[in-house]
From TrEMBL:
Presence of the UniProt keyword Oxidoreductase in the record: yes
UniProt entry keywords in alphabetical sequence: Iron, Membrane, Metal-binding, Monooxygenase, Oxidoreductase, Ubiquinone, Ubiquinone biosynthesis
Alphabetized GO MF terms: 3-demethoxyubiquinol 3-hydroxylase activity; metal ion binding
Entry-linked CDD domains: DMQH
Pathway: Cofactor biosynthesis; ubiquinone biosynthesis
BP term (GO), one: ubiquinone biosynthetic process
SUPFAM superfamilies the record matches: Ferritin-like (SSF47240)
InterPro entries (alphabetical): Ferritin-like_SF, Ubq_synth_Coq7
Record protein name field: Demethoxyubiquinone hydroxylase family protein
């Protein structure tokens, strides 16, 4: 059996992937109408997030661990974030990607540090998604913008992601 903290870690990642699926689904929905040039990239990222979700889902099932009680919050918040950033324009989609993925990666590094000492299976599971998230971050940074205009989006996305992580660690 896994320890309580290990379970909490995988649970929040599981919920986070659910949120990521919703963000990219909402952005994809908008992009199909307005930004056809980025549909393929969004589809690819969405595919990754679906794989990540099932990776964490499998771990939870194999370890008889319940999902997060705040699981419902993630698709709701994710979908709203995705729709709003999608409607604000192509650049803001990538600014959102950069902000989400950098927050996620920062969080993953902290988790990996802990898991390397406490659970080999959980460590491998988290490590297996890192490369994809780094790819997403790079795309976000390349295609986004440092312009001050996008700073509010960056801040809102970053802090809502941090808030959802914080809340999910408690529930
Ligand atoms: Fe992911
Ligand atoms: Fe991602």
């Amino acid at each position: 059996m896994s320890s309580k903290e290990v379970a909490r870690i995988i649970r929040v990642d599981h919920a986070g992937e659910y949120g990521a699926i919703s963000i990219y689904s909402a952005q994809l929905f908008i992009a199909k109408f307005f930004y056809r040039d980025i549909v393929n990239q969004l589809q690819e990222m969405l595919q990754h997030e679906k794989q990540h979700f099932s990776t964490f889902d499998d771990w939870l099932k194999c370890n008889n661990t319940r999902p997060c009680y705040a699981l419902w919050l993630w698709p709701l918040g994710g979908y709203i974030l995705g729709l709003v950033t999608g409607l604000l324009g192509r650049k803001s989609i990538w600014v959102c990607t950069g902000a989400v993925e950098s927050t996620v990666l920062h969080h993953l590094d902290g988790q990996l540090n802990y898991l390397s000492r406490h659970s080999k299976s959980a460590y491998q599971t988290v490590l297996s998604i890192k490369k994809d998230e780094e790819e997403h971050l790079n795309l976000g940074l390349q295609k986004g913008s440092d312009s001050i205009v996008y700073l509010p989006i960056q801040i809102i996305v970053k802090y809502s992601t941090k808030f959802a992580i914080w809340l999910s660690m408690k529930l």
